[in-house]
Design a protein that fits this description.
alpha+beta; Glutaredoxin; four-stranded mixed β-sheet; about 55% helix; elongated; oxidoreductase activity; oxidoreductase; membrane; Mycoredoxin
């Protein structure tokens, strides 16, 4: 569980270190601004930047019922962040599964990505696409 938060914690800790350094150098405003920037980056790298994650089994059952795609992702992945933020509110039309939170999800990704845990991986029906084109995926979500 902690593994999911490591990138965000490291960025936040580095931000605190930079801010303290600026404060001791007599630059409180610069330190405060830098701390805010690092905390914003930490938020982007945290699981909170994504819709609620579910387990792989739950996502597969839900997708079979409603036909919505499954997106396998992991915290700290900049490709996942780019996909997530390019989708905007459409991201809620997919089932999101954190592969670091669910070993079955990691196994599902390895099964379609040649043994690698390459994310984002989108499963739409019986089709799996590793690192999908963002415009294509937006169109798929609009159509579903």
């Amino acid at each position: 569980m902690l593994r999911r938060w490591v990138p965000a914690i490291l960025v936040a800790a580095f931000g605190v270190l930079v801010a303290v350094t600026q404060l001791t150098a007599g630059l409180p405003v610069v330190g405060g601004v830098e701390l805010l920037v690092f905390l914003a980056l930490a938020l982007l790298l945290s699981p909170w930047a994504f819709p609620r994650s579910m387990g792989a089994d739950e996502a597969q059952r839900a997708s079979a019922v409603d036909g919505r795609p499954i997106v396998y992702w992991r915290p700290g992945c900049h490709y996942c962040l780019r996909l997530r933020f390019s989708l905007g509110r459409l991201a809620r039309r997919a089932h999101w599964v954190d592969i670091w939170h669910d070993p079955a999800a990691a196994a599902a990704v390895r099964a379609v990505a040649g043994g690698n845990e390459t994310v984002p991986t989108v499963v739409l029906g019986d089709r799996a696409v590793v690192n999908p084109d963002r415009a294509w995926f937006r169109e798929q979500l609009r159509a579903s």
